[in-house]
């Protein structure tokens, strides 16, 4: 069986880490076919659009995309290509695992194994009602939370916990102060949690959650929260395990899913072979899970860990002196 996925090579270091990732996937002989599409600066130069219709059509048709980092130029158009993709395809669940890896520059080289599930389409990032007063002294914005949005993201988190054998979901909120928006999220989460009696549901105020993550991250399993809080918490979790270079992300909707490295384009090192491809490789592992290839995803993750343990052909950020593709070849040799 073959599966066609849309591949967006991205900007900056994007093409380098994508080539490395596809090299490893090809070595696994998964039957994947690639349909390449443009977005970001490359697309802007070719077609005058950051998100060409052909790219949107490709994602819509294939329903699965693997994406390198993209640059959104400052000064006009939509605020973020990533946000725009989430809106257009209703990719309501942002799933960010954070796992300790060996031989990394991390505060927690072991003991961290958690997933942040972030609502991706509502809340503070919807840009609804944004305005600045005529005198420039006051800015306003509407934060909208719906029962439907809250219900489906919390249900996704509990279903993920059930599917992966995780035992606890922590609902993170600020309902003590934001009694309407965060209050609705928490009330809805309690209703959903009641349907999963085998999974422990914990409630935690967001500021306490951040403190607890820094002090004892091992207490967390699955975290589910709203858009803004999830954005902050997921980056905090990346800091626990060594940074964004080891952190993938999945954006899941009913009709499409996009898997990515969550770091930026790093234009200062683009084209130099210095980029660490692990984040995109781990995003590819999430994609394989989504495609029903869980055993292949496990093989890929194990090969990455084995390469880190062996300190074999690592990039500079991981303490080695090899280039991006050499690192990928070392991983490919183990899958």
TrEMBL record:
Transmembrane segments: none annotated. Keywords: Oxidoreductase. InterPro entries: IsoCit/isopropylmalate_DH_CS, IsoPropMal-DH-like_dom. Its EC number is 1.1.1.42. Residues 4-331 form the Isopropylmalate dehydrogenase-like domain. GO terms for molecular function: isocitrate dehydrogenase (NADP+) activity. Residues 125-145 are annotated as: Disordered. It is an enzyme of class 1 (oxidoreductase). Belongs to the isocitrate and isopropylmalate dehydrogenases family. This is Isocitrate dehydrogenase [NADP]. It comes from Novilysobacter luteus.
